[in-house]
Amino acid sequence: MDAPLTGVRVVSLAINLPGPAAVARLTRQGADVVTVVPPGGDPMEQFARAYFDELHVGQEVRRVDLKSDAGRAELDELLAAADVLVTSSRPSALRRLGLDFASVHARHPQVCQVDIVGYPGDEAETPGHDLTYQAATGLLGEGGMPATLVVDLAGSERAAAEAAAALVARARVGEGVRREVALSDLSETMSRPLAHRLTAPGALLGGGFPAYGIYDGADGRIALAALEPHFTARLLEVLGIPAEELSRERLQAVFAERSVDEWEEWAQAHDIPLTPLRAATAP
């Protein structure tokens, strides 16, 4: 099915990135989504309006003051018909609004709740963001700013999966359940290849294997990933390089002879995983 969540109704209170990205996936899977943002809006609207709009395609976006009686009544009306509630606030903030799972479950027992937090369990009040989660697990290397918000986006994928898992659990137990997604856990998961030295500098996927790395072409850079033996063998055969002469220096000398577009066309013709390095572009 292209839309397996057709008929599922989702209410999202999540702002910033992980929650909205998770709910965007649920929307693409067919869910009927209402996103509730504060009267002042989601910070993403100010930081990256085009991205905010992209994440909310196909959703109804309402501005509701949940600190008012009218706002809470409006939300309760939405939850009365909802299957899933997604939040990204700290537990104390949810309790103040009567939106912790115990309170929501008492009023709307059919609702499955996915709470996105920074740290798990009793540490959920600890503040954090993608930058600090990456810093704590070694993903920032020597301290450069990350190229993307990998923990937030990994968290969004897990939150979407947990929403689906919660719906399966509800079908089995007959009532809504709570699932927690801790972004610090995602950072730990994302760091495992580095912790096991798979991607450490000089390791197999960290520059240690010549057929897996970044090279300079005549007018730009290319990424080569001929990791499996059959790809490596084909690479060497087509380039005319004996296996015993495989080295970064030998490959670099060859790749410097052509433009990145020529190498891309060559790679497609010979079924070799190679692509030019390109800048991110808006859809």
From TrEMBL:
UniProt keyword list: Transferase
Task: Tell me a Gene Ontology molecular-function term this record carries.
Answer: transferase activity
Task: Fetch the Gene3D superfamilies from UniProt.
Answer: Crotonobetainyl-coa:carnitine coa-transferase, domain 1 (3.40.50.10540), formyl-coa transferase, domain 3 (3.30.1540.10)
Q: Which domain of life is it from?
A: Bacteria
Kindly list the residue ranges recorded as spanning the membrane. none
Report which residue ranges the record marks as coiled coil. Answer: none
Q: What InterPro entries does UniProt report for this protein, alphabetically?
A: CoA-transferase_III, CoA-Trfase_fam_III, CoA-Trfase_III_dom3_sf, CoA-Trfase_III_dom_1_sf
The keyword Transferase appears for this protein: yes
**What is this protein's name?**
CoA transferase
